[in-house]
């Protein structure tokens, strides 16, 4: 488990970046927390700097959009999904459980 | 509408085909491309591809899903004329493709020097251009870049990384002047000096020296800069000459309304070749931006098919980026003649900042950021609020 921080420091619409084996971005979408790989699969950019729109984040550089629930890109320029990770909150503290790989079902459609 | 022909097989053309299917068009789609290659992405050509860190596979735009598009490709074929009466596109091999709708996505090509040039002189626009240039940028090679716009700046940056010695020759008083203005152009241009690239400003090119292969560049003030390789980066011009007799209104590209439709029923234009009315500037502009080529087709397709199309508001704000010497430069909006600069974050001297372009009435109309993607994204959307 990777410690992210206090939930109070991650209000709705905000994001945080933590270092796992790879950098991970954690988002608060109207109270629901999501975590995906932080690096856009199109080109080196940090998705935690991106724009939240519902359950999607738009890469801050080239507008690739990823679904926070599945990690799938919604269209170009990104072709490959990002990994999704489990987020848990314990006593007001946020943790991420890093996945080992991209969900096979998702990889199949990339 | 049963048949649609798309002329141009780069980002705008491919995106048009995808948009047609996404919006329910189930008729025949023919896509004509004058290069032999399947659609590929151009931004990496001056950066990762040139540096050798991205392969041809990496920059390919088509995905496995695209086989489901059911597109009839005509690659390596050039459209030579458009018969608007029958909406027929005539190809260089004599084929005549008659359809109900035509989308012009022919892009732009690199502007070249008026005279023939010796070997070792390049432009960079296509995959073949990039392949040829990549072979020449060996460690120690002396590269002269003519033109300090974005393409020249990115090539200089990549070449430095490859161990070349680089000079840039620019006629204007500042690099990136046309896009960013003199002050911000100068600020961004400092990246070159920091990375050991020599900049020659207000310097005109007199001639290229070298009988078979280029050996030097002579400037108008008489100076001679030795060169092994020269890249000419002096802008691009739209590929619209083939439409000269078609009756399609042309002026710096194909004139279209805001949705991408021309005056001729059933004919639209998208991407670099389209000079479209833009709500953001309240005037027609041809945008040679990747983002425009990606976003414009959906609107044009909807208009052709008679459908409603609602794009996110910030799509109306012109946007481009550049990667140079490991820094990300982003610009959105536009620059008016009476603009002043207001630094919002960071400072200009450190080269890490976010600056607004503010018009004479005090309204922000553009935003420029270096390595400030998060704040830049917020401002890009705030600018959309002007509409």
Automatic annotation (TrEMBL), chain A:
Q: Which InterPro entries match?
A: Rieske_2Fe-2S, Rieske_2Fe-2S_sf
Residues in domain Rieske? 2-96
SUPFAM superfamilies recorded: ISP domain (SSF50022)
Gene Ontology molecular function, alphabetical? 2 iron, 2 sulfur cluster binding; dioxygenase activity; metal ion binding; monooxygenase activity; oxidoreductase activity, acting on paired donors, with incorporation or reduction of molecular oxygen
Q: Which Pfam families match?
A: Rieske
Coiled coil, from the record: none
What superkingdom does the record give? Answer: Bacteria
Name of this chain's protein = 3-phenylpropionate/trans-cinnamate dioxygenase ferredoxin subunit
Q: Does the keyword Oxidoreductase apply?
A: yes
**This protein's UniProt keywords:** 2Fe-2S, Dioxygenase, Iron, Iron-sulfur, Metal-binding, Oxidoreductase
UniProtKB/TrEMBL annotation, chain B:
UniProt keywords (A-Z) are: FAD, Flavoprotein, Oxidoreductase
Q: Which Pfam families match?
A: Pyr_redox_2 (PF07992), Reductase_C (PF14759)
Any single GO CC term annotated in Swiss-Prot or TrEMBL for this entry: cytoplasm
Top-level taxon in the UniProt lineage: Bacteria
Named from the GO MF annotations, one term is:
oxidoreductase activity, acting on NAD(P)H
Essential cofactor(s): FAD
**Which positions fall inside the Reductase C-terminal domain?**
319-384
- What InterPro entries does the database record attribute to this sequence? FAD-oxidoreductase/Apoptosis, FAD/NAD-bd_sf, FAD/NAD-binding_dom, FAD/NAD-linked_Rdtase_dimer_sf, Reductase_C
Start and end residues of each FAD/NAD(P)-binding domain: 3-296
- Name the record gives this protein: NADPH-dependent 2,4-dienoyl-CoA reductase/sulfur reductase-like enzyme
